[in-house]
Amino acid sequence: MFQKMLKHLANNPGLKLLSLLFAVIIWLVVVNVADPDATKSFSIPVEIINKDIIAQMGKVPSVVGDTDIAIFYINGPRSYVDNMTSDDFSATADLSQVDLSQEGEAKLVPIEITAKKNERRIEIVRRTVNMQITLEDRLEKKFVISAESIGTPADGYAIGGVEVTPNLLKVSGPASVVSEINRVGASINVDGVSSDVSDNVLPVLYDEDGRVISSDLLEMNQTAVTIKAEIWATKSVQIQCRVSGEPAAGYEFRKVECAPETVLVKGRAAVLNGINVINIPANVIDISGAREDMENTIDIIPYLEDLGISLVEPSAGQVAVTVTIEQKQTKSFDFPVGSIKINGLNNDYELEFGVEAVSLSVRALEENMESLTLDNINVLLDVTDLQPGAYTRQLTVTLPGDKYEAVGVVNVQFVIVDKNAETLGEPINPDDEPEEDNGGGEDEGTDEEPDEGSGDNE
User: Which CATH number describes the domain made up of 38-136?
Assistant: First the structure.
């Protein structure tokens, strides 16, 4: 049986070989039709390696234009080509391969492109063959890292402070690149948070226009920094203004107003719970001698710092203060002498005035003056220990409350007569020169002999 099979296979060898070749051709055609070739383009950044070769020369490389972007395409079966992305390739420029003897400032560095998978199934065709570099002096600068926040905390909370550790970054590299760095920042996301947060982040380099500077040729002494954000509670607090001093005579302080009346502040909850008002000290607003309304702008931030709190919006620190000063009205009253109360008159004496009324001037705000009448005014004459004779005395005027003010001194002329004594000569004439004694006590000249017609008893 076996010998018969071998004999059958040995017959017609040429025909059998032709059949096998034909089968292979058909298989290749089928494979090619089912998975045809395809082409796909890519562009990826070039990684620079062996920088120390240039560093040993005291120089640093600087890339010319966009030559550190490798542009290439691949050919191969569609099933492999379509499934490949930029992440499946790497491009490197080895500075150890640069020919420093090349003429001109720009030096060419060959770019090597490698596929991370399907390397045997595809063909890589480079469009960017070389990276161009120039050799520059090395520059090193230090920058303070500014802490920044992104987003808005939860309702009722605000950012109390943001700090970064360490806050100093040392950057070195080509002078042309390092000199473009304007600032270095680190940011943390606080959107929707209600408690302190922290994170480890990469420092970001910015130029003066706020554009990010990114270069493989730069070296930093910190690859990551720690940034922390304090989240504080917020509270609306009233501003209270007071004044010091007195306005000019004839004027009255009416009110002091602040705008805004309240501000939104932030701080630790334990601190905010004990704060209900922000007091602006009275000595800040001095109205001494004022004759008109006063306006001023006060920075309240120092008073907040004393309390351990701060403004949610720093621009709200300026408070407009308006002080209202109103001029008083002056009104004169003819006060009947019969309504003057006499104090200290001896029962054996009687007192006679030389006029029917005295003139009183009262100063007050117009709204208060309307309600002031003679019935509200008390006038007192003190004649304690006075002997018979002619006098001029100051009256004591009592007005109904501090809102009224007597203007000037009110004097009255009068005579005191002994009801039991005989009158010598002419009766006392109130128009005669009276004895000047405004002190309320006995006249110093009572021991002297009185002038004729003075009305004094001998």
Answer: 2.170.120.30
H helix or E strand, kind and range, residue 176: helix 175-178
Q: What is the pLDDT of residue 36?
A: 85
Task: Report in angstroms the alpha-carbon separations of 191 from 155, 163, 226, 231, 291.
Answer: 10, 17, 18, 11, 53
Confidence at residue 51, expressed as pLDDT on a 0 to 100 scale: 84
Sign for the pseudo-dihedral over CA of 114, 115, 121, 126: negative
- pLDDT lower than 70: segments of the chain: 1-16, 24, 27-34, 422-458
CATH value of 242-327 in 2.30.29, 2.170.120, 3.90.320, 1.10.3470 = 2.170.120
Q: What is the pLDDT of residue 438?
A: 47
First to last CA, the chain: 189
pLDDT at 358: 92
The reported pLDDT for the residue numbered 435 is 53
Q: What's 9's DSSP letter?
A: H
Q: Which two tokens stand for residue 79?
A: 């099933």
Question: Do 38-136 and 137-232 have matching folds?
Answer: yes
pLDDT recorded at residue 169: 95
Amino acid at 122: I
Burial grade of 431 (CB within 10 A; 0-12, 13-18, 19 or more)? exposed
331-436 CATH: 2.170.120.30
Q: What is the 3-state secondary structure (H, E, C) of 342-383?
A: EECCCCCEEEEECCCEEEEEEEECHHHHCCCCHHHCEEEEEC
Quickly list DSSP for 177-243.
Answer: HHTT--EEEEEEE-TT--S-EEEEE--EEE-TTSPBP--TT-EES-S-EEEEEEEEEEEEEEEEE--
- Quote the pLDDT of residue 367: 82
Element (H, E) at 159: strand 157-165
pLDDT score for 57: 79
What's domain 137-232's superfamily in CATH? YbbR-like domain (2.170.120.40)
Q: Which residue has the tokens 């050799």?
A: 135
CA-only gyration radius of the chain, Å: 53
pTM beyond 0.90, yes or no: no
> What is the distance between the alpha carbons of residues 108 and 80, in angstroms, rounded to a whole number?
32
Domain boundaries, the chain: 2-34, 38-136, 137-232, 242-327, 331-436
| 271-280: burial string, b at 16+ Cβ within 10 Å, e else | bbeeeeebeb
Element (H, E) at 169: strand 168-174
